[in-house]
Amino acid sequence: MNCDCRLIREPRPAQNCGVVFTMLLLVLTCFAAPALGGVNWRVGASPAVSMDDSQLIAELESLAFRQGASHVVVHASRSLGQEDRAVLAEQGLALLTYLGDHAFFAVTNGQQLDARAIADTKMLAGVEAIQRNWKIQPMILDGVVPEHVIVGGDARSEITVGVYVMFHADESLLTTGVDTVTTYEGLVRDELES
């Protein structure tokens, strides 16, 4: 005797509700706007910056024309791809190093900057000046000299320390880099470009 038995389970209404709820939750999670966080620096986190269009335009224009300081931190409103970077560069804002949480170091080109066009793209949530303490190892700021960085001298004389200095990708190590280090009576021992 051949028996073709199949067990078919009818879904219960409670199971259907659970499945529908789970799917709805997944869809909402996928389409929810990303929450912008701050940047985690060595000295601590800085809060995310959020500006309306008029504030963004005013801040971009103000920061772009500072004497001797064209680098800024920008906070994007979403993930930015290569096409987005190209659009911003055409409008006078070149994205450099990614910092996390949709934030970048960037450089402004004051002559080419079109702050209104940048604001109209809705790509940026905000922009701010770079704070000096964000970029310097906290021990250097505090005057602490760990033994492993001492490369010359002793407790009775001035000591010489070895540190790494990293510049923005658009800066020349051979000109700006060397000039900056020698301004602080430093000596460049080696260079590494990546």
Describe this structure as you would to a colleague.
By secondary structure, the protein is an alpha+beta fold. It is built from seven helices and eight strands, in the order H-E-E-H-E-H-E-E-H-E-H-H-E-E-H. It has helices at 13-31, 53-64, 82-90, 115-121, 132-135, 138-142, 173-183; strands spanning 39-41, 44-46, 71-76, 93-100, 103-108, 124-129, 150-152, 160-161. Strands 4-5-3-6 form a four-stranded antiparallel β-sheet. Strand 1 (39-41) and strand 2 form a beta hairpin. The longest helix has 19 residues, at 13-31. The radius of gyration is 26 Å and the shape is elongated. Mean pLDDT is 78; it is low at 1-10 and 19-35.
Largest sheet: 4 strands, antiparallel
Strand content: 15-25%
Contiguous low-pLDDT stretches (5 residues minimum) are 1-10, 19-35
Q: What is the overall shape?
A: elongated
Secondary structure: helix percent: 25-40%
* Widest sheet: strand ordering: 4-5-3-6
The SSE order reads HEEHEHEEHEHHEEH
Query: Which class do the helix and strand fractions yield?
Result: alpha+beta
State the total count of DSSP E strands.
Answer: 8
Radius of gyration: 26 Å
What distance lies between the first and last C-alpha atoms, to the nearest angstrom? 76 Å
Round the mean pLDDT to the nearest integer and report it: 78
Tally of helical segments: 7
